[in-house]
Design goal:
The complex is a heterodimer of chains A (329) and B (259).
Chain A (H helix, E strand, L loop, with lengths): L3 E4 L2 E2 L2 E2 L3 H11 L6 E6 L1 H10 L6 E6 L8 H11 L5 E5 L2 H13 L3 E6 L1 E6 L2 E8 L4 E8 L4 E5 L14 E4 L10 E7 L13 E5 L9 H11 L2 E4 L1 H5 L20 E5 L5 H4 L7 E6 L6 H4 L2 E4 L2 H14 L10
Helix pairs in contact in A: 3-4, 5-9
Chain B lengths: L1 E5 L2 E3 L8 E2 L2 E2 L6 E3 L1 H17 L2 E7 L5 H10 L3 E5 L9 H13 L5 E5 L9 H9 L3 E10 L4 E7 L5 E7 L2 E5 L11 H7 L6 E2 L1 H4 L5 H4 L2 E7 L8 E2 L4 H16 L3
Parallel strand pairs in B: 1-6, 1-8, 6-7, 7-13, 8-12, 9-12
Antiparallel strand pairs in B: 2-5, 3-4, 9-10, 10-11
């Protein structure tokens, strides 16, 4: 069996929590494997992140260079091509960075590529069978992959359980000699702007998705939120259409929220959206499509048109008088 | 600027409730449209040539059914639609599609190649693969492009938590365009009529000099589609709307501290 590597992104000296998930994925490929963690970067932050992986990985390769100090998948790819042997199995978290890094990495390693993998169900005879989703998460698919020349596998964050720490690993310095200059140069990071309403501090969220259909209908959701004394949040399509500000978006590209109750209205429930929901909220989902992925994670589901459901709910809440939740607005 | 936008025809999820048929999805009666993120890529290309001159070419790998998405993007304003089509392309994986596109790119002189951020398979792979094959720089999840008339452009790309990363990138390059970067223009029947008879050049494997793609060359093969495991699954409320609303209000009180 080929060697297994886990590329672990890190920031501020902290390794991506997916490090423990990659270890589980590696064990599914080869229970006897001793996967090697690879970190790229420079300075004390890299040292700290590498050290932190000792309880998980028996071997941690530390690739240090000034050019690797800034997040730039183009530069990281060049460094990885130099240190990863041909034919290897390379695991990467399917984050914004893995999304940038891995397709090109697979080409440069002459390896197959499996993006956004949820599970690995069979390995043998030079091939590997994995589970992915297509069509916005509505349908799952088994894919078989020829791994005879290696494979890069991006794992969906949260899909593999985190492995318990049971190693006492060593950090190995891996020097780089190749030219790391790139046609893409990092300039700066611009942090998210605050909005008029802080959706991260709400007990209840009235959250709308593509099912809201048009800008004029936002008001219907706002009226429900007003009646409940809470705020309106949303999924990506609503922000793409410029119907709500980016500060209202929940998901891996938006805010992370921890409400007690999450009213998911006309939201299909992509994994990028669900990544922004923490603290096990009680999810009540309303969607016209009975197959919407949101119904697999919600506690309670209703198949209905939100444009009719919302005003009816608002009216009933108003009839019952004050339902103010008393949460900070 | 000469810009190529790679587009794909996909099942329109706003028009279909997908069902299974054996190990495939039910294809009968399926409504197709252009992959929605591709419209943002085409719109961005059109705005760029509007500012600085040039042409926009849209290309897709597929068969005669796929011409309709090329025409749709031409109705948006793309100057040329190109169909890369051959029986030998069928069953290509992401790497195969990137190989076919690479051959087409190498027969031309594009300054910039755009793709939508992802398509129906959620793989988001062809742009990055194409760039690596061409040794062009690549950036994914691009949320703005600023051109200065020179040999570089400035882009922002989306990262975690709503933050953005600014990069400078040399031309030619490949970018995957995130949805929301612009507001794609509307295409009406009139626009479609105007491009209905425009010729769409076709290139086959021989014309492109491509081999080793298609099902035989694929490293990744779909075995079967299946419905995702239900997990715990929601308790589906089957009552009429009034009953459902009464239950939702109970739950809001019990679980959400709503009084």
């Amino acid at each position: 069996m080929a060697r297994i590597f886990a590329y672990v992104p890190h920031a501020g000296g902290v390794a991506d929590e997916a490090a423990a998930e990659l270890l589980t994925a590696a064990a599914k490929i080869d229970a006897g494997a001793a996967p090697v963690a690879i970190l790229t970067g420079s300075g004390p932050e890299l040292d700290q992140a590498a050290e932190s992986l000792k309880p998980l990985y028996s071997e941690i390769w530390k690739v240090s260079a000034e050019a690797l100090a800034q997040p730039n998948a183009e530069v990281v790819r060049k460094a990885l091509i130099e240190v990863i042997p041909a034919g290897s199995i390379v695991l990467v978290p399917h984050s914004h960075f893995g999304w940038d890094l891995s397709p090109g990495l697979s080409i440069k390693l002459n390896a197959a590529y499996l993006p956004d993998v949820l599970d690995i169900v069979a390995v043998g005879g030079g091939s590997l069978t994995a589970v992915r989703t297509e069509f916005g998460g509505q349908i799952s698919v088994h894919v078989r992959c020829d791994i005879s020349t290696g494979v890069v596998i991006n794992t969906r964050p949260g899909a593999f359980a985190a492995a318990a720490p049971s190693a006492s690993g060593a950090v190995v310095d891996k020097p780089i000699t190749s030219d790391l200059t790139s046609g893409r140069r990092y300039l700066q990071t611009i942090e998210a702007e605050g909005g008029d309403v802080d959706i991260t501090k709400q007990n209840v969220l009235v959250s709308i998705g593509r099912g809201i259909q048009e800008a004029d209908n936002i008001e219907i959701a706002q009226e429900l939120a007003d009646a409940l004394g809470c705020a309106v949040s949303c999924s990506r399509p609503v922000v793409d259409a410029k119907w709500l500000d980016k500060s209202r978006q929940i998901g891996s590209s938006g805010k992370t929220v921890k409400p007690k109750v999450y009213l998911a209205l006309g939201i299909s429930g992509s994994f990028q959206h669900l990544a922004g929901l923490k603290g096990n909220p009680f999810i009540i989902a309303v969607n016209k499509n009975s197959k919407a992925p949101i119904f697999r994670v919600a506690q309670v589901g209703i198949v209905d048109d939100i444009l009719e459901f919302m005003p009816a709910l608002t009216e009933r809440v108003r009839q019952q008088g004050s339902m103010a939740q008393g949460a900070g607005r | 600027m000469e810009i190529l936008v790679c587009v794909k025809r996909v099942p329109d999820l706003s028009e279909n409730e997908l069902e299974l048929n054996g190990s495939d999805i039910e294809r009968d009666g399926l409504v197709y449209s252009v992959n929605e993120p591709d419209n943002y890529a085409v719109e961005e290309a059109l705005r760029m040539v509007q500012d600085s001159g040039g042409h926009v070419t849209v290309a897709t790998v597929g068969g005669s059914d796929d011409e309709e998405v090329l025409r749709r993007e031409m109705a948006m304003g793309a100057n040329t639609g190109v169909l890369l089509s051959d029986d030998a392309f069928e069953g290509s994986d992401g790497r195969g599609v990137a190989t076919i596109l690479k051959a087409y790119v190498q027969k031309n002189n594009f300054d910039l190649i755009l793709t939508g951020v992802e398509a129906d398979d959620g793989a988001a792979q062809v742009g990055g693969m194409l760039a690596a094959m061409l040794d062009y720089p690549f950036a994914s999840l691009v949320t703005s492009i600023e051109q200065n008339g020179g040999k570089t452009i400035k882009i922002s790309r989306e990262i975690e938590g709503g933050a953005k990363e600014l990069n400078e990138i040399d031309l030619p390059c490949v970018l995957s365009i995130q949805t929301g970067i612009n507001e794609p223009r509307y295409v009406g029947m009139r626009g479609l009529k105007q491009v209905a008879s425009r010729e769409i050049p076709e290139y086959d494997a021989a014309a492109l000099g491509v081999a080793g793609v298609g099902a035989a060359g694929a490293k990744v093969t779909r075995l079967d589609y299946f419905l995702p495991p239900a997990g715990a699954g929601a308790e589906m409320l089957g009552g009429d709307r009034d009953e459902n609303i009464a239950r939702v209000i109970e739950l809001l009180k019990a679980k959400g501290g709503v009084s």
